[in-house]
UniProtKB/TrEMBL annotation, chain A:
This is Glucose-6-phosphate 1-dehydrogenase. InterPro entries: G6P_DH, G6P_DH_AS, G6P_DH_C, G6P_DH_NAD-bd, NAD(P)-bd_dom_sf. It is an enzyme of class 1 (oxidoreductase). GO terms for cellular component: cytosol. Residues 42-217 form the Glucose-6-phosphate dehydrogenase NAD-binding domain. It comes from the Eukaryota. Belongs to the glucose-6-phosphate dehydrogenase family. Its EC number is 1.1.1.49. Keywords: Carbohydrate metabolism, Cytoplasm, Glucose metabolism, NADP, Oxidoreductase. PANTHER family: GLUCOSE-6-PHOSPHATE 1-DEHYDROGENASE, GLUCOSE-6-PHOSPHATE 1-DEHYDROGENASE G6PD.
UniProtKB/TrEMBL annotation, chain B:
One of its GO terms (cellular component) is cytosol. It comes from the Eukaryota. This is Glucose-6-phosphate 1-dehydrogenase. It comes from Clupea harengus. GO terms for molecular function: glucose-6-phosphate dehydrogenase activity; NADP binding. PANTHER family: GLUCOSE-6-PHOSPHATE 1-DEHYDROGENASE (PTHR23429:SF0), GLUCOSE-6-PHOSPHATE 1-DEHYDROGENASE G6PD (PTHR23429). Catalyzes the rate-limiting step of the oxidative pentose-phosphate pathway, which represents a route for the dissimilation of carbohydrates besides glycolysis. Pathway: Carbohydrate degradation; pentose phosphate pathway; D-ribulose 5-phosphate from D-glucose 6-phosphate (oxidative stage): step 1/3.
Amino acid sequence: MGSRASAEKMSLPLSRSEVFGQLRKDLYDDEEFHQTDVHIFIIMGASGDLAKKKIYPTLWWLFRDGLLPEDTYFVGFARSDLTVDAIRAACLPHMKVGESEAERVDAFFKRNFYVSGKYDDDASFTKLHEYLLGLPSGSEANRLFYLALPPSVYHNVTKNIRNHCMATKGWNRVIVEKPFGHDLQSSEDLSNHLSSLFTEDQIYRIDHYLGKEMVQNLMVLRFGNRIFGPIWNRDSIASVVLTFKEPFGTQGRGGYFDEFGIIRDVMQNHLLQMLCLVAMEKPASTSSDDVRDEKVKVLKCISPLTLDNAVLGQYVGNPEGEGDAKLSYLDDPTVPKGSTTATFATAVIYVNNERWDGVPFILRCGKALNERKAEVRLQFKDVPGDIFGSQCRRNELVVRVQPNEAIYAKMMTKKPGVYFSPEETELDLTYGSRYKDVKLPDAYERLILDVFCGSQMHFVRSDELREAWRIFTPLLHQVEKEKTPPIKYTYGSRGPPEADELLQRVGFRYAGTYKWVEPHRL
Amino acid sequence: MASLPLSRSEVFGQLRKELYDDREFHQADTHTFIILGASGDLARKKIYPTLWWLFRDGLLPEETYFVGFARSNLTVEAIRSACLPYMKVADSESKQLSAFFSRNTYLSGKYGDAESFLKLGSHLDALPSGSEANRLFYLALPPSVYQDVTKNIRHHCITRKGWNRVIVEKPFGRDLQTSEELSIHLSSLFTEDQIYRIDHYLGKEMVQNLMVLRFGNRIFGPIWNRESIACVVLTFKEPFGTQGRGGYFDDFGIIRDVMQNHLLQMLSLVAMEKPASTSSDDVRDEKVKVLKSITPVSVSNVVLGQYVGDPEGKGDAKLGYLDDPTVPKGSCTPTFATAVLYVHNERWDGVPFVLRCGKALNERKAELRLQFTDVPGDIFNSQCRRNELVVRVQPDEAIYAKMMSKKPGVYFSPEETELDLTYRSRYRDVKLPDAYERLILDVFCGSQMHFVRSDELREAWRIFTPLLHHIEKEKTPPIPYTYGSRGPAEADQLMKQVGFRYEGTYKWVNPHAV
């Protein structure tokens, strides 16, 4: 029928707008997209580290790859008296520009502008607004405000944006970066402030884990496959482990980290978000709010974490290690003396609903550990009525988020050859082999694109955030009040043995008989 | 200790332990393997070479002797030179090969002659420790002499001190009646635990793996039933025709040759309940139970085909089945068959089991495919295709689960992909033994799990005999299909009609092939 015609059409390179149109359709069913089609992306805090290292480079990659709408302008705003050229020079080392792309970089920066002003100054924002209006079709343009700012100026900047910089014809969207407060109270204050200025559908809270390929894949894996449906519950799953491990310490930047600690930095946001996607019921549709409704529902079924279900650690230098590995967290000169901030945490959480009652969700994260890895691991129960003389190990379904994205099912197979006994193996999907030529976009690229498309699915809604803080705030307050000393663990180790003991206690089984090796590696 | 190379007996001991818990193994430890029909094709091409490989790899008990028996007046030397082309002997193995043949002897005699078997009996007794040795009789013979030979073995050649086992090759009759006659004859001479009926598909790695896959993995348990599985397809395809040997085939046809045995055996392993243990009879009890729940195939659930030459093809592909000079003129024997069976039990009620087999098709492939039902309550706008779990038996052994994954990149839509286990990549250094190697080893070890029991055979014939009689009586003309094609289009229509969904959007490619 039309398949050949469409195949031919597919083989023609698409114009930038066509690509974007397809994506928009894919991501958002093309609803609510204004035909004005001019967009202005405003970076508040354009002179800062985040802007320089992440936002500008990401915008450049999206621009280079033709993923942004044709008529998009970029406006930087910060206190410093800067020029676009100065920004260009500052960002260039992080932009990975190919030699053939010089012309394209020029085109990108030609669409860039810079305005300086004070964050608490009404006049500065009026000036910014005038500037935005002065851009081609500026008065009809949609506006995206990226807040790459320290929390201290959040209040003022958001108020000033709301009062002086909103588009009246196009839409306005505000992208917010963590920290979203440091406990339930402070986060609620911030949320209340934001919601007094913007509606929920204008607010895009970034948790960049939600932009990762494998995290985004969780919904398709779970709800697009009949084989997983009947086993994704307490009847078949013994435990769920969510892991985030970094092989390095604070590297002299512990001062900032020390204010937050690993629970706020990783567990309360990234790991808990992954937990929601693993545990949630099937949403009514893939629309952002249907999905987020289900995620919130999971969080509501979780009681606050208690200290007896957690193990906290802080790394100490390994005298036999090399370089940084010799250094303890407390050796970082920017870390306050005697700090009891955790650099490692394992917590066991229970989702008290019909699907998950009794199944431990184990959240593990830490710095200065033995490897770099983020993964989701479902461990299935033992086969009931074993007929193989207890030779079978538990099945596991592992979604490896980073590095080397992969999905694999650890399972038993007949030991190949003349034998008949079971042996561990895996069904594997390693992205590096299966999708050799596919470039996986960076999390920020996806997320910024989502904001353009108006898809909020991969952003944190206010009620999600509130529930997340509700779960962790009591523990955080207790630890901070009592200055509970974290357990020391050696740089480069698995973390405190107490964490492994906790895992074992709640039912995770580690046989040590199997190690995943990328089966495609020669 | 494990790093020391094991002696041949030690390896065998380990295997025996694994396969048979080392029970019932007489300490006599001397074995005599008797090949009846030693001058024939099967012996030359398959049995002797297999014995050699097992011997070479140290998988046989130390003291094992081989005795050939046939009508021709032969010598071991003559057998050696006849078998050599099939034995894949490496240059470095000439010493071992000589050792192998030094354990071989040959005796000629008549199959219907008691005297000849008395002589064979004395010969066996006269071998080193011959009277205490266990005896394995391999019947590599045409069915016409089965009755005489088995009777003579029973009366003149069995050992009283060791055990006796008889290995029988198909055909096991040609319908329920003739098969029953043969079984009754055999059981008048031997007990069931002495009879080893070979279906060489039961010796294949992936077929043997089915039990571990099903019963060793928690993830498959809850979905292996009518709630989750839409249909099961068992396929055997050959890319070549009868190649001038259609005369023998024509007597049987594809249903007897492949479907009633190989495919039905795989079906049993896929459909059976979990056995009480992995002991041979517990497993075979469950397999029989599956067959008992299957009603005889009805003509309306079958498509039969016969290949015709492809005028545009090359060489053999130009030739139709009827062009084979050894095939009787106007033969109605099918070279292709698709049949739909239903297992009427609580687990499988309503799930079609589609058996497909044929010659001169588009590819060589034997596989088992479970197609799962659609995801209920779809939220991806009907973009999801059905999951499938595929066990690829040959060539290129593999297991893969066809499933949906997010289209990688900036997209959010589902796309087909697979979780894969390709043996050649995962088990690069593991040599998978040939089906006959495993099966003969099983006979040594006394494991009957991978052999067909009398009641299994009876049930299998019960299912197909009415259909076979019907088409033979009515001389139902099979549907012609072109050499090298997928077979008759009617077969695909039948599959579609019973609920198999083929989208054509996905083709498995070995993900490890660069």
